[in-house]
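Journal club side-thread
Mid-discussion, someone asked how the predicted structure for our own chain would compare to the paper's figures. Pasting it here so we can look after the session.
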Amino acid sequence: MEPEPVLFQVETNLRSGRPPRWTLSGEVLEPSPVVRMDRDGPVHSLCFTSTESSMSGPVVFTAGKSHCTAKLSVKERPLQVVRHMDDVEVKENVAVTLSCEFAPSPRAILWFKGRTALKSSGKYSMKREGKRAELTVHGLLGNDGGPYHCIAGGAQSTAHVKVEVRRLKLVKNLEPLEVEEDEHAIFSCELNYVVANVEWLLNSCRLYSNAMYRIQNMGTMHSLTVRKLRPQESRVTFKAGPVSETTTLRVKERPVVFLRSLEDVVGEEQGKVCLQYLHITIVQRLKTMAVLEGENCTFDCLLSHDVIEEPTWTINGQLLVSDGRLQVVNNGRQYKLAIKPAILLDAGDVVFTIKDLSCRTMLFVREKPVHVFRQMLSVKAVPGDDAELSCEITKPEATIRWLKNGHPIRPSPKYVISLEDHLVRLVIRNATIRDSGEYCCEADGVATRAMLEVR
């Protein structure tokens, strides 16, 4: 049975003479690491140090005009799995790679998920390198979890893939609003991750962006602005997949605001008397702003007349006071709030209030994306040495994840992971040939890859 050695011996009546000839299946054999030929007096030996099933055939010894024949039969070694696939647990929407090794190298390999045969496609990538078989499943969803089988001949390796499905939920809820007629009502909420399709409803009627309604989203933040409001009491509903939340909208009649009280007057009998008052309104309302983290933004509000009272500005209910970053400016009937620069905590409701008037809008602050400004380079190492892979990113506080051939790497005595300022490093202690492969560093969804070769 392969790969066991085999020995053939022939004894002749001659102790010297021309060298004999050995053939296998008609081919003349020459000395090599696999083929050894010896002579000890009249005894001639042929040894195959390693055998394969393809070597089966007649072995012929020829010395002069004499020859001797024997048959070599090598049974094929049963196919075995020498390295099984590992069970993995991953998050949805990423790729996972399963791999195993057979001995000897199989002629054909089949992949199954449960009882369903898999074929190469945009979803599944299959690779074969000698004895190693590899399957990559792209864009994992909840129903991609389960057992995966790699079958070659009578050998089989099985791994279970567990997909951690994110449960959609609201991390910032809708709040009930009470505004005055002719004002704008801005509803906002935030989901725990980005989704493509959401719905806004007013009293069970779906809304679409137009002159009356403005629907916006920025990442996980969603908002609805309702304009030209009239006195009413309504229900506003937000829907995203299985998530739904309803709140109330109450619109009051606008009260009359007097800048100056009526004054006593004296008039003649049958004469005319003129009484005057000023109606204060907001003629320029706050506009919704969307900026990138670190950028500046300004909110402007304009009244119809000058008033004596001081205004207040709030973000998410917190009263604002002018400092180096926040600047509140009053110039006659023009009121301004400048934020230089905006930070992520500024995102939310911005409210301007003066006397009985108020105006509300939304500030969206997008997080600066992570960039890799020094890519990871491939590395070669000698067995027993420490191997180091590194890259540099623009955002030190990013969430870092390392993977080897698609499998997550966790800090351990074997793997030392560090983040110093912008430098991300992975050190593989006492590297072996099995540490060779593709390594990936992920930082908030941005990835850089490199190969490690240990030999």
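Post-session note: DSSP finds no helices and 43 strands in the chain.
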